[in-house]
């Protein structure tokens, strides 16, 4: 993360963790992700609206999962002192007198005034309750949603988050899409607040062409900062939803590839290109060729790794394998090479083995990896997901924590 | 009305309320009008107070408030006296309240406190005379580490005399495997297969097997699944067929043989569709010749076979992508 981006995050109603989420998602494998989901399920609050909680990383992305690392012999077990665990310490909870009366009698008209003291005491359980209660008060009423959006123009950061969460939980979001877009692109507002408005667009079922055009233009503009990053994520999330429903990702993908190729902000390029791997939309030859060009010209190692992942969705397997082979030959970075190597298998399965064998000849550090893949395919496994989980290690080249 | 809280020390309360609520505090003893701002005061949570709040809250129209109370009890559980919580659990007979209290006890064990809290819940799941209370306690064990801590509890629960309890136990097995273990835990998957095979309720067996990730099951579990292909119940045969599609590499050849062997003799179209799906899953593009050979067996399933062949020929390498592509193909038709 660049110093510039830290500054942006600090000034934004959208949390820094929201911005980090996709980076984390690509860093985690499926096991780690599901383990996280399991912890959430076994833990406390409903967490479906937390950034990253519902993002699925695909196998082949790096895993930080200790179980998988253990399988590779990286045990890292502690010494004898860990045999004497400290008694667990727990945070206390508070029970609020009059919350029941608040719940029974609050209306949209009194909500802001009555909720203010509760918001101020920072009780996380009450804060979650307030979000849910506001959503219930908004219901599916467009007029009420508009009123809440009006409050959000001026609200301080903590209340802004509450108001937007209430809108998110209501059933009315698609009805105020135009208003959200307009607020998100309103230059009279600070960029952090605009990011907060644009962030809600990710929950729409589709983006109209004019809205998509405006968002893409904004996302690509280097002066948009955090809000541009959020706009790119919204395009990607809607793409996934619309693709699942209609089977058509092309309008969104075109815009994301343009952002990925042209944005001056590395993190925006990374994110724009990362969204394809979450959607899993098949790439036609034209989109594949555009990615090949990005792979050849992109300066960031991390962005090139994401492009390598994206290319595994190419419909034309031969085209993809040719791109992987050429890129591997000229690539200097070990971790990008590892991405090209393994995603070649994800693109074409055992048909990729000759290309992978050639890669291992070019760079002997991959000979052990080649033997692993060859052995697993010979055992009859066909699913890349299962190949990935059967590898002796998911981090043979020390790429997992390289940038931490 | 019972006070929902036990007052905490005065300074803490003041720290939370001073400056914000002073005008309201002056009026706290008078009946409040609906337009008057509530006089929020924070206190330490007690079992009795929480139970009173939850009992009243169950009648609320606000789902947000009910969720808040449920979460508050669960989060407070580790700081409440165990004996009070356990006593409240044991004397409670309202299913909703029992479920809340059971979840609180389970939360204590889950967060590293005494194992007997969860054991008390498991005991009631097996022994309470009221099936709705047994079902409620089973739900409280859902998406927790209960599979690891309760021995053969689930094999016994799927044989409960009540269909509601059996189905709740089946749902636990499905959801625990998926959400707690991510579908990649051999013991959890084997426990689910053992319970599915132990149940004589076809709906329960089908519910467990139809959604189970079987990539880590043992050879013994794989054989049990193959045996279930011979069930009298079509829904069990369909679910076992589906489950066999995901077995580990060492069991794939045997599973493929078992599925291919039964396709011709099978009469139920739903089971046949499940078999076709698992043959596709076990072989990907390598399954195309086998699928082509099955085209003539049942003309009504030729479109299904053709759809699989078309999708497998895309040479996708990830089962989830293949499933999505098949879904899109069917939507387009």
Spell out the blueprint of helices and strands.
The complex is a heterodimer of chains A (404) and B (333).
Chain A lengths: L2 H8 L5 H12 L2 H13 L23 H6 L22 E4 L1 H7 L2 H13 L3 H15 L3 H11 L4 H13 L7 H8 L6 H9 L9 H12 L4 H22 L3 H13 L3 H14 L5 H13 L3 H10 L6 H14 L3 H15 L4 H10 L4 H12 L5 H7 L14
Chain B lengths: L9 H8 L4 H5 L14 E4 L2 H11 L5 H14 L5 H10 L3 H16 L5 H12 L3 H10 L5 H4 L3 H5 L5 H18 L5 H13 L3 H9 L8 H10 L5 H11 L4 H15 L5 H15 L4 H7 L7 H11 L6 H14 L1
Helix pairs in contact in B: 3-4, 4-6, 5-6, 6-7, 6-8, 7-8, 8-11, 11-12, 11-13, 12-13, 12-14, 13-15, 14-15, 15-17, 16-17, 17-19, 18-19, 19-20
Task: Describe the model.
- The complex is a heterodimer of chains A (404) and B (333).
- Chain A is mainly alpha-helical.
- Chain A is built from 22 helices and one strand.
- Chain B is mainly alpha-helical.
- In chain B, helix 11 (163-180) packs parallel to helix 13 (202-210) and helix 13 (202-210) runs parallel beside helix 15.
- Chain B contains 20 helices and one strand.
- Chain B is elongated and about 75 Å long.
- At the A-B interface, helix 3, strand 1, helix 5, helix 6 and helix 7 of A face strand 1, helix 3, helix 4, helix 11 and helix 16 of B.
- Strand 1 (94-97) of chain A pairs antiparallel with strand 1 of chain B.
